[in-house]
Amino acid sequence: MHKKICIITSAHPIFSTRIFYKEAKTFIRIGYEVTLIVQHDKNEIKDGIKIIALPKPKNRFFRIFVTSWKAFNLALKQKANFYHFHDPELLPAGILLKLLTLKKVIYDVHEDYPQAIRTKLWLPPFFRGLIASVFSSFELLLVRLLDSVIAATDDISHRFPEKKTTTIKNYPILAFVRSAHSDAKIDIGFGRKGPTLIYAGAMAEKRGIYELVKALESIDEKYKVTLKLLGKFSDKAFERRVRSLKGFAKVDFLGRVPYEEVSEHLMAVDIGFVLFHPAPNHLKSMPNKLFEYMATGLPFIASNFPLWKEILEENECGLTVDPLNPNQIARAIEYLLDHPGVRRKMSKNGQRAVREKYNWEKESEKLSELYQRLSE
User: Fold this and answer.
1) Better-scored residue on pLDDT, 180 or 117
2) CA-to-CA dists, residue 194 to 141, 184, 331, angstroms
3) pLDDT per residue over 229-240, tens digit each?
4) How confident is the model over 21-26, as a mean pLDDT?
5) Are the CB atoms for 148 and 166 separated by under 8 Å?
6) Which domains does the chain have, with CATH numbers?
7) Residues 106, 82: contact at Cβ < 8 Å?
8) What is the Cα–Cα distance from 43 to 37, expressed in whole angstroms?
């Protein structure tokens, strides 16, 4: 009889790259029965994964205090061998599942949440530090009652007990690695409409979207650049600010695009961007898109955080800039457009680095080994 894993998220979308495409599909591949409790409009089976739908919450407060409780009750009914949850608001639910079922419970930590709390605009500034400290103590206390912690980066893992923590990074699936940016493509040029730039992901102020669009205003008109934006704006007010910029006339806004189609867009453009602002929880993060750009052979420009700079310089696959400086971003774009040989080298180096070390196939082995140990 197959062992059953119940994955729970009250905050992430159904087709979260890490949760659905990487972890859940890995569990299916190695022979587990998988149930995913997630915000969705219906119960269904997708790619062998049983989806149990949570209603979309009315607001953040409702999600934290009502949706998470509904997720707990649904999880309890699954009678799974393992409960694998992904959101800090589900920590109380994780503890209750452990106490009531006596099964293995795993906490998958995507971010340094105490640091993230310190930059949450929806929290009163004078309370952020206190809330962050209280949550940090609360989180560290509760994880001691759980069976395992999975951390998305080395920096996150250092916060938790070493003996029960495994680092499983958000590297891309090797299927992303294709010879999309060939020498011929780079040598021939950009076609009749000029070069195309791309940003794919959540579009919040701290992701550097405003500065990127602003940078388009000072790029020489001779380049005829177009910027593709794939994703959803964090809020209407920020979207209005970005759309009011003169540079938005050069934007092709596509909105949210299914995960399966993202790689096709990445392979059809010339330069990508990861321009996160230097918020505390960004400085040592390792975002999906950084490695997906590398995997598809896409030269890119990233924030000049020490960790990111080290990765890019070691692998010679991109440039780093001050993400708060639109002029510096613009000059980096022009440099890459003027130097096809540099772009060609970055393309090859990025793909090689992903094939050799930055790929999900290697990380998934650690996930399989962890569950093997928990089964013993």
Assistant:
1) 117
2) 55, 16, 17
3) 999 998 899 999
4) 96
5) yes
6) 4-171+360-375 (3.40.50.2000), 174-356 (3.40.50.2000)
7) yes
8) 9
Q: Quote the CA–CA distance of 287 and 293 in Å, as a whole number.
A: 11
Quickly count: other Cβ atoms within 10 Å of residue 159's Cβ: 18
Contact call for residues 138 and 95 (beta carbons, < 8 A): no
Cα 28 to Cα 229: distance, rounded to the nearest angstrom:
33
287 is written with which tokens? 């975002």
- Characterize the bridge pairing of strands 300-303 and 271-274: parallel
Amino acid code (one letter) for 259: Y
Phi (first) and psi of residue 8, to 5 degrees: -130, 130
Question: 314 — phi, psi (to 5°)?
Answer: -65, -40
- Determine if residue 56 is left, alpha or beta; phi over 0 gives left, psi from -120 to 50 gives alpha, anything else beta: beta
Q: Is 69 left (phi over 0), alpha (psi -120 to 50) or beta?
A: alpha
Helix (H) or strand (E) holding 142: helix 125-143
Burial class (CB in 10 A: 0-12, 13-18, 19+), 188: exposed
> 10 Å Cβ neighbour count for 116?
18
- What whole-number distance in Å separates Cα of residue 34 and Cα of residue 303? 37
Give every CB contact of residue 139 below 8 A, 6+ residues apart in sequence. Answer: 88, 91, 113, 114
Instruction: DSSP letter for 125, please.
Output: H
Q: How far apart are CA 64 and CA 10, in angstroms?
A: 8
Question: What mean pLDDT is predicted for residues 203-224?
Answer: 94
Residue 168 β-bridge partners: none
